[in-house]
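Could you please consider the sequence and fold appended to this message?
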Amino acid sequence: MELFNITCLGKPLRLEGSLAGWQALYWNNQLVSQLAASADEGEKTHTFQLTADENIITVDVTSLINWQPFTIDYKVTVDGEVIESGTRNEKDIERQQPVVAPEGKQKFSLIGLASLG
């Protein structure tokens, strides 16, 4: 289930999770962090790094999920500075648009076109 989908550094940042407790974080539709299910239901933090020129940028995504009633509190920091935080509930999840993964570009081959001819 998609827990939230926001923009971070000009690209989509999406957190997915399950009732079993695992979480997966995607930046620009690429998996950047994954947390396995665990018995402790506390705050969880995903951390990943990006390289811009010669600089390394550290992104932290912290979430606290309450399943009954459903709420998720989240905070996104870039190099220690909060760039977004918020709370979502089950109504927000119901209203969201599902993410559609971008399709790869189709490549045409001259050999393939010649074989059709």
